[in-house]
């Protein structure tokens, strides 16, 4: 799918996440932090102070990692303070690109492809060009391309500008949130990709067992809880929902995670609909884009590019 090598786009370069027959997601490399006073965060360098309108977020509707950032942005009420540009829901030989004919436009700089943003905002970057990515309009630098870090920035650093003061990573519950995060990410968030890109039956079987072990465990936990930690929505729920939103229309068929559908889990289905009904969330969910994107033409997974008509999913009804 192409790589940047020393800041130059190489469409024929490979950056596969598949090692042997098992899928292993590469790690984000750009990990600076926006903080309230501009001091350095847990990783990266300082100089990125939270300011109204200073930062710009690049996303794609079909990417679940970008979806996390859109969810936190909506829940905190930061839509006006942190504008976005949306990449087209497809990748070409130029990687993630814009498509003005279909209203996918870089509203900040008018770039035609995301690699141009990476090249302009980093020093000779080498690696994959991914969404989401947060851009600093003051220094013209990339802040971060790690979704887990970006949602924590939105939750904490931008509190002064947020419409809601809800803390989705409250200190008394941080250990429990991290326990859920550390369980859900490898088994479910990334587990569906390990299944979809498995290179052997054993790798596929292992991944699918992890996916449904996680769904079964969460289903049981929700017997007595509204959200993963109880009565209050937290970061753990925000990181879970993008996978649930895509499950029946994409992962169930395209990635062969088809032991059960999300709708077959009474608690999880109610939970997903409850999350979907929160203010600003439904605008971030694009079921048709998921269906078409995950069933796009692929020599390994879908050689004819046939997009299934079902199943029909409607989070607005039970």
Q: Can you describe this structure?
A:
- The protein is of the alpha+beta class and 318 residues long.
- The protein folds into 2 domains: 3-161, Glutaredoxin; 171-291, Glutathione S-transferase Yfyf (Class Pi), Chain A, domain 2, CATH 1.20.1050.
- It has helices spanning 64-76, 114-121, 147-156, 174-189, 191-196, 201-221, 235-254, 266-276, 287-294; strands spanning 3-5, 8-10, 18-19, 22-23, 55-60, 84-87, 91-92, 95-96, 133-136, 141-144.
- The strands form 4 sheets. It has a 4-stranded mixed β-sheet with strand order 6-5-9-10, with helices on both faces. Strands 1-2 form a two-stranded antiparallel sheet.
- A hairpin with a 4-residue loop joins strand 9 (133-136) and strand 10 (141-144).
- Helix 1 packs parallel to helix 3 (147-156) and helix 7 packs across helix 9.
Keywords:
Glutathione S-transferase Yfyf (Class Pi), Chain A, domain 2, two-stranded antiparallel sheet, Glutaredoxin, 9 helices, single chain, 10 strands
Secondary structure layout plus pairing:
Elements: E1 3-5, E2 8-10, E3 18-19, E4 22-23, E5 55-60, H1 64-76, E6 84-87, E7 91-92, E8 95-96, H2 114-121, E9 133-136, E10 141-144, H3 147-156, H4 174-189, H5 191-196, H6 201-221, H7 235-254, H8 266-276, H9 287-294
Parallel strand pairs: 5-6
Antiparallel strand pairs: 1-2, 3-4, 5-9, 7-8, 9-10
Helix pairs in contact: 1-3, 1-7, 4-6, 4-7, 7-9
